[in-house]
Amino acid sequence: MPLGSSANAEIIINEAIDVVALPEPWIFDRYDTSGSAYVLSNTGKAALSPVIVGFDVGGKAVLNDGIESGSIVLNERKLREFQKAPRIFVPFPSKQPDYEFAKATNWRKYVEYLLAR
């Protein structure tokens, strides 16, 4: 540059502390900085959670709000087809069958029972 001329520079730094970053395809219905993602709730259901995207970097969306750190985010396209939140995990039965009852039950009935659940 010749003497007496000036140059202007603008530096933009995207900084985020204690935030969640998700792969961009995991966020659906995204428009600009808002979108949605499915999170596993305490009841074992897939809960729809609205998110606010701060910026994108390296194929990931850095979220400003919506999902807490330590949450389990679900990446399944079929979840969008349900009208209500479907159950993801079914709890174990709290009552064990009696040994004599289990011994008398045919194994085919037991398998049918498991598959029907």
The overall pLDDT average reads: 80
Radius of gyration: 25 Å
- The helix tally amounts to 2
Percent of residues in helical segments? 10-25%
Separation of the first and last Cα atoms: 76 Å
Number of strands: 6
Strand content: 25-35%
Q: What's the overall geometry?
A: rod-shaped
Q: Find the structural class using helix and strand composition.
A: alpha+beta
Short description:
It is built from 2 helices and 6 strands; from the N terminus they run ββββββαα. With 117 residues, the protein is of the alpha+beta class. Strands 1, 2, 3, 4, 5 and 6 form a 6-stranded antiparallel sheet that branches.
Describe this structure in words.
By secondary structure, this protein is α+β, with helices and mostly antiparallel strands. Strands 1, 2, 3, 4, 5 and 6 form a six-stranded antiparallel beta sheet that branches. The longest helix is centred in the last third of the chain and has 10 residues. The termini are far apart. The model has no long low-confidence stretch (mean pLDDT 80).
